[in-house]
Specification:
The chain has about 80 residues and is mainly β. The chain has one helix and four strands.
């Protein structure tokens, strides 16, 4: 089986991904409430305003509020 063609190369300054847009899709917004977090249960990134904390194994974790299923059905 043939290997796929490599579309990135390491340039002289050590950077790779010349075609990749810089930055992260999960940039923090200017306010703390605009940033995203991943849900401990479903793993999807959601704004902090759509999260709540629940205790699992003695630690607090961010989870979807009111639930992961409800947000998915609502189109979030």
């Amino acid at each position: 089986m043939a290997r796929p063609e490599i579309k990135t190369t390491v340039v002289a300054d050590g950077l790779r991904y010349k075609s990749k847009t810089p930055g992260s899709p999960f940039k923090a917004a200017s306010s703390f409430g605009g940033a995203t977090m991943s849900c401990f249960l479903c793993g999807k990134h959601r704004p902090r305003s759509m999260m709540k904390t629940r205790k699992f194994a003695g630690r607090s974790h961010a989870v979807c509020a009111p639930s992961c299923k409800a947000l998915d059905e609502a189109g979030g």
